[in-house]
Specification:
about 170 residues; mainly alpha; 10 helices; extended
């Protein structure tokens, strides 16, 4: 059997189902409550709390950073910086090795031109990676964002308690 025999009848499509990212908002007014909670961090964010809440909601719904930024009325770079400062993972388009190279540039072990060439990043990607390397997430902000979209409440606790006996522990695997 040849490869062409195996591939006979296969069909390639360009459509893909967008399933998004499942999220649960445990609050009665998720957007409003998140906006209020983010107000405490507004001075440390590159945008206002309402825009930050829109960005986070879009991100947790599986939208791209660009789409979330457009919905919030801010630049995509501002949205990416906001997500990073709020502790959202995976905002930088560079690999861990490329981040190490950016770190070498920041510590003056490489020139900027060498670092950009080694990372293969364009200007925007390099600027975002530099921001990620030079700014830590805001302390407490990631807990706030995770808490806003985590399943909580009496029903969830009751389900966990009811199913607790069916779950095995690590010790049972040995």
């Amino acid at each position: 059997m040849t490869l062409s025999d195996i591939a006979d009848g296969l069909e390639v499509t360009t459509e893909q189902c967008d399933r998004g990212v499942a999220s649960v908002d445990a609050t009665a007014d998720g957007a409003g409550a998140l906006r209020e909670r983010l107000a405490d961090f507004a001075d440390d964010l590159p945008c206002d709390a309402a825009s930050a809440a829109t960005i986070v909601e879009g991100h947790t719904a599986g939208k791209s950073v660009g789409d979330s930024a457009h919905a919030a009325g801010v630049a995509p770079m501002t949205a990416a910086k906001t997500l990073h400062l709020l502790g959202c993972e995976g905002v930088s388009p560079l690999t861990p090795e490329a981040h190490r190279i950016v770190g070498d540039w920041l510590s003056a072990n490489l020139s900027r031109a060498e670092a950009r060439q080694l990372t293969g990043a364009n200007e925007t990607e390099f600027a975002l990676a530099t921001f990620v390397e030079t700014h830590d997430p805001i302390p407490g902000a990631s807990d706030l964002v995770e808490g806003a979209f985590a399943p909580e409440g009496d029903a969830t606790v009751q389900k966990r308690e009811a199913l607790g006996e069916t779950m095995s522990g690590i010790g049972e695997l040995l």
